[in-house]
């Protein structure tokens, strides 16, 4: 079959996907190692046997719901090609709001920023790409995920230090300008855990106790021990958790608390400033 015929066939096979056309083109570009323009300009191109076999196998895996990012091994985030694996969350477009908010609040002078639960390293790497003068540190509990973040740092030529450990444990004695995090925030009983890409992502990166609030509260509680005066904390959370996160920030003495809405107009990222001197 020609390339045009393969595109048609794949779209028919992936009819149950909400993004069948996009999935088809991404997978074809991946297998052929060509840009989208090639698919459009060369509809009569005939795939060789190896390409046909790979396309058939990838289409079958996508049919059962396996994320496209896992099939290709990467996902674009902040225009960076981020390597992904089943050991980490797949970076989402809505998380780019975190980058915008951080850039708007970091000082002009060099700063130190920590990304807690860095996973692929996407957030830290995006910030480093925009502010090469800053020190970026990613903290990750999962050893395989930490190694993937280091790999992404090397591949992209963006110097992010990755420290393995639980939350603040690897940061003893450190004082930072900003803490960012997309921690686990989904309740274990949430029905959405059985839908979409999250079925293929690690529970440890998704689920938190106390109705999904445990890790968010832990970060808010302990962050002042590591922040400089007037330092910021930026947290991604569930669309129904905005008020809870704002209230918890306020109860712990933070100021200038603000929630940003994602591209679906849902509350997604809450940030706050620590007003006082670093706690001892």
From TrEMBL:
EC code(s) of this entry: 2.1.1.297
Binding site for substrate: 182-185
Domain Release factor glutamine methyltransferase N-terminal as annotated: residue spans: 5-73
Membrane-crossing segments per the record: none
Segments forming domain Methyltransferase small: 104-198
Enzyme class: transferase
Pfam families referenced in this protein's UniProt entry, alphabetically: MTS, PrmC_N
Record's keyword terms, sorted: Methyltransferase, S-adenosyl-L-methionine, Transferase
A Gene Ontology biological process term: methylation
Annotated Gene3D superfamilies: DNA helicase RuvA subunit, C-terminal domain, Vaccinia Virus protein VP39
Catalytic reaction annotation: L-glutaminyl-[peptide chain release factor] + S-adenosyl-L-methionine = N(5)-methyl-L-glutaminyl-[peptide chain release factor] + S-adenosyl-L-homocysteine + H(+)
Source organism, top-level taxon: Bacteria
Binding positions (S-adenosyl-L-methionine): 117-121, 140, 167, 182
GO terms, molecular function: peptide chain release factor N(5)-glutamine methyltransferase activity
SUPFAM superfamilies: S-adenosyl-L-methionine-dependent methyltransferases (SSF53335)
HAMAP family in the cross-refs: RF_methyltr_PrmC
Family membership noted in the UniProt record: Belongs to the protein N5-glutamine methyltransferase family. PrmC subfamily.
Biological role stated in the UniProt entry: Methylates the class 1 translation termination release factors RF1/PrfA and RF2/PrfB on the glutamine residue of the universally conserved GGQ motif.
Name of protein: Release factor glutamine methyltransferase
Gene source species: Oceanisphaera pacifica
